[in-house]
Amino acid sequence: MEDLRLNVALLRRKVPNLTTAARSVGLRPATVSNLCTGKIPVGRSEVRTLVALAELADCSLDELIIRGEKVDMIETKIKVLDLFAPLAKGGTVGLVARPGMGQVVVLAELFHRLKQDGYVTAILLPEVESPDLNEIIDSVDIVARSIEEAYEEMASRGKESEIIFASDRSHVVSGNIQELQERLEAVGVNTVTTLLLDLRGEAVDEDLPYGPLETLLQFDADLAARHKYPAVNPVYSTSSVLEGAHLDQQHLSVQQRAQKLLRRYRELRSLVNVGGLERLPATEVQTYKRGERLEAYLTQPFYVAEAFTGQKGESVALQDTLQDVRKILDGAADSTEVEALTFKGKLSLEV
């Protein structure tokens, strides 16, 4: 099948308030969001939905739908991100979390890792001072206090280096981020990957809190409460990189099998919390235990947290993550204690 995806950049430019616009023509914002991130493939969407989006953007279907263009992935070596919600290079990534779920730590870790890979790191400070960002600022290459300052700094450095850029949602709501992206593109800066945070935690209650996104990182309150960090929800987080032709089939197969297991594990966990493991049918016990091990494996020590946790940060290459997850899915780790998989890097050689 021909590789198809939405022109998210065009939607972002033409329809700034996509949530309201979608509702006004009878579209569910959640459906539009899933189309943008690739959770719903364009080839399986309803024609009327695509026509309505084209009308909102005042463009043709040919302009709205991009054919055959590959979306490159940024390999972060963070297991849960690379497997379930890869960062789309040059795209816009939205972090959806309430305060205290760890989104600022994930941002700090991404900056740390990608800076090691040669990226220039940049942040546009929110209009209201946020103490959460103070520890990040000292290690960031570009700290801008206005849109104009951010533009000037990134325009001068972005033609030679790839940039990872972060901003708070307050600048998205005002339309400043869309304007900044357009200005940078106009001067030939096309390698800015934008991370959008919501430091106030308001985005959790909205279907399209940032407008169209290439990657959505949905944080999970239950994982955060149980200290299963990074508390990124592997079921609801997604990325346009996951659309068929953008991944090799091994990645897609492992990702889909892992999501299926974790979805069922979460259902079973609610029963276990109430009645204990004996409440489960015998046929479901294995599913529950493998889901528990996979959830534990997806935790990971971060470099930026070493001083607080006393644990050395770990990087796991995507191919190692795929091999390890496949082993867990196939039962090769069934005899391994959950604790032995928690906050580790690769599976040990004994598994």
UniProtKB/TrEMBL annotation:
InterPro entries: ATP-synt_VA_C (IPR055190), ATPase_a/bsu_AS (IPR020003), ATPase_alpha/beta_chains (IPR050053), ATPase_F1/V1_b/a_C (IPR024034), P-loop_NTPase (IPR027417). Keywords: ATP synthesis, ATP-binding, CF(1), Ion transport, Membrane, Nucleotide-binding, Translocase, Transport. It is found in: Membrane. The keyword Acetylation does not apply. The keyword Ion transport applies. Residues 246-322 form the ATP synthase A/B type C-terminal domain. Its main location: membrane. Belongs to the ATPase alpha/beta chains family. This is ATP synthase A/B type C-terminal domain-containing protein. The lineage of its organism: Bacteria, Bacillati, Bacillota, Bacilli, Bacillales.
